[in-house]
Amino acid sequence: MAHPITSSRSLAAYRSSLGLLVLGACSVEPLALSTQGGLAAYASSTASAPMYKLEGWQDSDRKLLAAALDQTWGVVTSADFQNRVADVTNLHESRGGPVISGARLLELYLNDRLPVTYRSSRASGETADTGIAGDHGLTNFGIDNLARWPAGETPDELLERACMINTISHEWTHAISDARAHVRFTDGCHGSSSVPLVSYTVGSIAHCVYLEQKHVIAHDRFWPCVAYVGTATFSGLSVCEKRKWLSQI
């Protein structure tokens, strides 16, 4: 049996209080979580290591991205991440697309994701975009993202790092192909949705797991954090730069 998870304060209220965009009438379907514990059904304990190639990166930038990729892999292979993803029962593969269980998604995410080639992009304002190119994923990764991987771990720097982990883990969902060798999990080029999408929800779970592991948020604030960061779209860069939102979840 599944039940919706909502925060003690509505998503509309705490987004509005910070002056952030509220989607439509704020009618985003809340995540539904299994009470059965979905992890054992599908998740493999022998998840394949991330395979990637970095093309066209300067040495200093290459080292930063490699460190971020490795730390993101550490987050998504943690029990904290896997248990949370496996318990979600109402993820949509795309806007208007079929529903997939978190447990089944986790199996695909850890074991069937294609190797990814990362190309540096200097396009202004670009975060990342990923497609399927034959037997691998191809990610154009905005070089401006690297500013979100600071050397230290102050609370503000951890917020920056969490956003980078969100971006990387989100883009990894787009490196899973369907039977036609196309991207299986899409989000309409970062458009908004009224239902929880695989890509945004995975990114937000990884984002909030990292903040929980670094003791930036308390355990009981985890799901409100996920709802705030966004399951149908990304709530905005304020979650990367300002701590005020943490008091609203």
Mean pLDDT comes to 82
Termini separation: 26 Å
Number of domains as seen in the coordinates = 1
Q: Which overall shape is indicated by the principal axes computed on the Cα atoms?
A: globular
Poorly predicted regions: 1-26, 38-46
Percent strand equals 5-15%
Q: How would you sum up the major sheet?
A: 4 strands, mixed
Describe this structure in words.
This protein has helices at 11-17, 39-42, 59-76, 79-87, 102-111, 155-173, 198-213, 222-229, 238-241; strands at 2-4, 32-34, 52-55, 91-92, 99-100, 116-121, 128-133, 136-142. The protein has 249 residues and is of the alpha/beta class. The strands form three sheets. The chain has a four-stranded mixed β-sheet with strand order 3-6-8-7, covered by helices on one side. Strand 7 and strand 8 form a beta hairpin. Helix 7 (198-213) packs across helix 8. The longest helix is centred in the middle third of the chain and has 19 residues, at 155-173. The model is unreliable at 1-26 and 38-46 (pLDDT under 50).
